[in-house]
Amino acid sequence: MIVIVDERELVKGGFSSLFSREGVASAGFLPGEFDEWIDTAAQPDLKAVSAVLIGECGEHDLSPRRIRDRTAAPVIALSEQHSLENTLKLFEAGVDDVIRKPVHIREILARVCAIRRRGADEANYAEVGSMRIYMDGRDPEIDGAPLPLPRRERRILEYLATNSGRRVTKAQVFNAIYGVFDEDVEENVVESHISKLRKKLRDKMGFDPIESKRFLGYRLATQAA
Asked: Which pTM was predicted?
């Protein structure tokens, strides 16, 4: 989930709409609302955050270092002032990157992926058995051949690959794909997406690579059980 902090409703709504088109969950906050949320949010909600984008906050001063005390997600400033002085000021404040507007939404996602990759010292893909699962929006490959997937199914597979070796619950998958604030979508939709994804993977691989256990959740497997 991408968190957008900006005092302008139009900006928050615009970014949320663009992220949704890419199949990425997002949530918009006013600066004061975000301050309260980041201080009180439960750890499972904070773990669902993949990046914090800070836009125009008026007189409200948000501290990137304070945000980082609560979450390891990259903190990125969206700047409308194209000056070296402002850029250096933002980096000195502790942001991980400064992106000048206007910017394409895919560039933001690519920068988030690059920052997280550097922090984890890992490639932008995960290999699970015969699958290569990219983390930058590309379709996965099985034995070198691309497997086109709808964006929600692709995001679920990416999330499972990110947590390779660990089980994730239906709630964790839902929060990662739809965001912790989406009350218009039922959590059970995850089961439908995973069912469709499993069938496509099973048809290509000859076995179901997504293990599921009641109450424990889902995990990617490298070979047939």
From this structure: 0.65
